[in-house]
């Protein structure tokens, strides 16, 4: 293993926030396009034949083809989590204090996301009662999904950070994986070499058991998903933080080559996922995303690349992540109310509205839970610093 240099690079956490903002925004784009537009073939058959498409229709369809990497950009979240948690634990806090800070930082916004889902079910029932009480464009009436969501079993599982296949919270599949990492992080980071060996061995064992396919986030046990599929991404983040000084000194790509590399890797993933893997996320795409995450993280830190508007989104990226899918369904319900369909929406620009509405509601909801939590933690940190000094 590499030896950690004595000096330590100071991290500009605004840059990390921008990368979180990028990951969250892309996931929102992915879900908004998926929920608020039917597909190109249906559009061509029922709205405008391909032979008659204008340039702007072709541009939109091309953009839509590049919105399929939602799960891949969650991997960027995992790498950033490993990086950030490694920094938090580099200060050697008591384990109990580390857990408490994680709980205060994340749990209130998580609970708000669950409450928001219930509120959105009520909005759908009011705006589009036909969808709520009947299986119009869904396999079951929305009311069934709602009753499942508020059942005692689901409530307990959700409160224990073990969300099921919630209709308005499907993106929560990644949250228990984060929690598993937080629980083991204080212990594994102290033995990074052995943890890396074990992580790689388990990841390779996953290939043996399941090929390049991941275990199902719906039916397979959470430990299987973490150990054999996703744990390696957190480890990569920890590794990058541990050896950031060495890596940044030897990172040789300039800004132009960084952008060019990222675009090429992004395009490769779009092509592979769409034309080779039938839009199914898997380990091959995950490995490619590790390279993408490595370049964008080190490149942004090396060259101090600042994108202020992404940094702002990054500040409320967690709230955006836990609330956006439910918010998109508000747009679905309104679209159905005015006759555009629920999932068979053939309006080319409706998904842009979904992105904007998701950002707006997430920003407003951020002030309810995530902002107070972060401010409370900042207050505790300052109070502790003053006490020590």
Task: Indicate the percent of residues in helices.
Answer: over 70%
**Unreliable stretches covering 5 or more consecutive residues:** 1-7
Biggest sheet, in brief? none
Beta-strand level of the residues, as a percent range? under 5%
Radius of gyration: 22 Å
Q: Globular, elongated, flat, extended or rod-shaped: what is the shape?
A: globular
Which class of secondary structure composition applies to the elements? mainly alpha
Gap between N and C termini, in Å?
A: 36 Å
Counting DSSP H or I runs of 4 or more residues, the number of helices is: 18
Please give the number of β-strands. 0
Overall pLDDT: 93
Q: What series of H and E elements makes up the topology?
A: HHHHHHHHHHHHHHHHHH
**How many discrete structural domains?**
1
What does this protein structure show overall?
The chain has 389 residues and is mostly helical. The protein has one domain. It is built from 18 helices and no strands. The two termini are 36 Å apart. Residues 1-7 have low confidence and may be disordered.
